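During the reporting period the student researcher (J.K.) took over the structure-prediction task from the postdoctoral fellow and processed the backlog of single-chain submissions. One of the processed entries is reproduced below for the supervisory committee.
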Amino acid sequence: MSDTIKVKIDSGLAVITLARPKAFNSFDLEMIGTLAGNLVRMAPDPGVKGIALTGEGKAFCAGGDLRWLAGYDGDPDPAFHELAARYHQAILEIKRMEKPVVAAINGLAAGGGFSLALACDFRIMEESAVLKQGYTSNGLSIDGGGTYSLPRLVGSARALEIAAFDRVISAEQALSWGLVTEVVSDGESLARSLAFLEDLGKMPLSSFAASKKLIADSFDTPLEVTLERERHALSRCAVHPNGREGVAAFLEKRKPLFNR
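J.K. obtained the following structure tokens:
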């Protein structure tokens, strides 16, 4: 197990910390493989209700480690191909899992770290932290689902502007553009992310899971298909214990007790 990924689970909430602070938490093959492996294990684990993802030190994540890539034997193409495969597995696990994932952006999120943060369901960003897509300034194209997440958050025109110019994005700008959920004081992103997950845990997580999938799928399907998916999801939620409890509480005029 790599020591560049730290995991702590307490009261159903998992904290995954990217821990290569001297390299601004940029990831090599071993590190990103370990992250993906942890996400794979947590996705079906009933003991994990939500995940907070953060970085150790001054950065959230500076993306793929270009020094590691440059040191790969032979042509760089296989190196990028292999690293992206592991990285994209982590992105898919975040996007597909039924649990909420919050990025606690404690510092720089650039390149793959930028796309990693965007892949999360919510983003809590510290005041002095910055975002930078980072790829195009290095003659590369965006990966990690960045071209999927970015236009869905800010629209295609703004996404293309971010891709074309690669300007540094402050926390204030990120909030105004809808790139992040909240901005908090420095040093408070993780605590706020956990409080956010605790608040979300009071809501029916089965409904969250259904909504997360429906919203993600809605961009790629016509209205008729989306309506049919919504109908089936609604029926499944209605027979889930959370759905039964929610309806009963409404009829009985009391506060519902979800996720029991």
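The committee noted the following: The first strand starts at residue 5 and ends at 10.
J.K. will present the remaining backlog at the next meeting.
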